[in-house]
Amino acid sequence: MNAEVVILDSQFIIALGAALFLLGIAHMSPGLSLLDARLFRVIHIGLRRGNPSFRVLWHLGRTPFTLICIGIIMVYDLRSGVIAAIVFAAAASLEWSIKRTFRRPRPFTLIPDAVMAQPRQPKDASFPSGDAMRIWFLALTILWAFGLPSLVSLIACLIALIVTLGRIAMGVHFPLDTLAGSGLGLLAAGVADYLISSIPGVN
Fold this sequence. Notes:
Blueprint: H1 3-24, H2 30-47, H3 51-57, H4 63-76, H5 78-102, H6 107-110, H7 130-146, H8 150-169, H9 175-198
């Protein structure tokens, strides 16, 4: 794939990520917040039987795993890894700032029949989902950094989707939290790939 096509793909992913994040902010509307809570119950009750698997996959959305993967990219291509690290640091800082601004309570603290099944109880705010942000950032950044085939791309995105749904199944995020987090991850991955593809000497 030539650089021009990659840049166009990056721009699409950036736009998609921004759109998903803006959709997630809709939880500020009382009506949509109520709808979000109802949708949470449907997904949470329907998927929580899979929590043993979600608890295993939970580690893929954690910061340590993300840093390990970025380190592997650095070994493969130092400049690509450095760009990925800088963009990830910016995205993580933005996610932290948004959590501090919105301070949305976790669903297991608000909904009586919600079960908190995550291995470690989160103590920060619910919006946006940091795990969803990290797994989607990784899913696309690793694919672009290593030039992996389409089948691997589909598998990576499927794993990212399962990890994202696990945030709801384990009772720690509302659906709109995960949409916003996924959007931030896609946006960051698109920016990283755009920079990797645009700066001379990276590839």
